[in-house]
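Lab notebook, bench 4. Still working through the backlog of constructs that have no structural model yet. Next entry is a single chain of 350 residues. Request: give me the structure tokens for it.
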Amino acid sequence: MLQLAHKIYFYALAFVPVAILVYWLALYIRKKKIKSFAEASLFKRLAPESSLGKKNLKFILSIVAVTFIIFAIIDPEIGSHLETVDRKGSDIVICLDVSNSMNAQDISPSRLERAKEDIEKLIGELQGDRIGIVVFAGQPFVQLPITTDYGAAKMFLQTINTNMVPVQGTAIGSALNMSTDLLTQQNNAEARSKSIILITDGENFEDDAIAAAKAAADKGIVIHTIAMGSAEGAPIPLYTNGQQTGFMKDREGNTVVTKLDINVTQQIAAAGGGTCVRASTSDAGLGTILSQIRKMGKKLVEEKVYRDYEEQYELFIIPALLILLLDIFITERKTKWYHQLNLFGSTNEN
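Model written out:
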């Protein structure tokens, strides 16, 4: 299948017939002026080095070269095909807690927003790595499958909020299991270093996160944890139409205070063979975790990449350059060898 990458430049081809018309008019005017000046035979004696044939040849070469250049800019493409590329990198899954407690503001602007800001910075530092995102509250789901499309990763990241999971709670174990499945289902997964970065306040009420971390470690996956929040804790804000309307209260009417349980995050990191970092308002700690992942080393992996179309501009730009190079060495005057050349068996020369 053929397509034009830059169709707008197709209109530039209108320059070719216009240039030919202008050149023909210039030759016509030149011919009339020569006739008014002297007879053709006399003019040849007055200007013996002038060669109309070589002028025409240079013009034809220039027009052909310009036409090729225009087609190179238009860039015809033929597709599609699978291409094998070599990439070095790691597979990383961000496992992000989006339970209501992540709205607490003991880390400014909030635990969740601070985490999202740092994740965006981490994405900006990736090179050749694949990244995925799993979000969880009372249940987990894949927000972003593993990809090297960092632009898409940032776009999906911006849509994350605490209202996206209908079931509240903090099911860390289930989220780790889903992240592990995401990493082990990838092509060439066994050849790449694999890591899960768990970002949570550690309030796990649903399942056995330690067992899930050990199961991931048994599959060669390292789990790092980011502990969000403070030991003193903070109330959980409530929002209506984007405006804060108060704080979450329990059944007795007391304000609910959510506190960081750093013991849980430390135990998960230990079980997963990784590092636990405590976040602050100035730094959520993902930079430290990324440096730990880099120490594991990037591994070279062959991947099949689907290419929709293959560019063909070189089929036009190379002949254009060769023609322009040839044009440089062609003068508009007759040379000695040109005087001796008699292609048509006639002594008359243009």
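Notes after review: The radius of gyration is 35 Å. Confidence is low (pLDDT under 50) at residues 341-350. Flag for follow-up if needed.
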